[in-house]
UniProtKB/TrEMBL annotation:
Protein name: Tryptophan 2,3-dioxygenase
Gene Ontology MF terms in the entry: dioxygenase activity; heme binding; metal ion binding
Organism of derivation: Xanthomonas arboricola pv. pruni MAFF 301420
Keywords: Dioxygenase, Oxidoreductase
Gene3D superfamilies: 1.20.58.480
GO BP annotation list: L-tryptophan catabolic process to kynurenine
Keyword Transferase (UniProt): no
Lineage: Bacteria, Pseudomonadati, Pseudomonadota, Gammaproteobacteria, Lysobacterales
InterPro entries recorded: Trp/Indoleamine_2_3_dOase-like (IPR037217)
Amino acid sequence: MLFIIQHQTSELWLKLLAHELRAAMVHLQNDQVWQCRR
């Protein structure tokens, strides 16, 4: 059970990281560097 919870937590963190990186890439492409600092 602990393995399943740990795996799901890792998956959620990776999804959040992917989302944040995509948002940062969009801001950088639009020359909105300050938006990436949050």
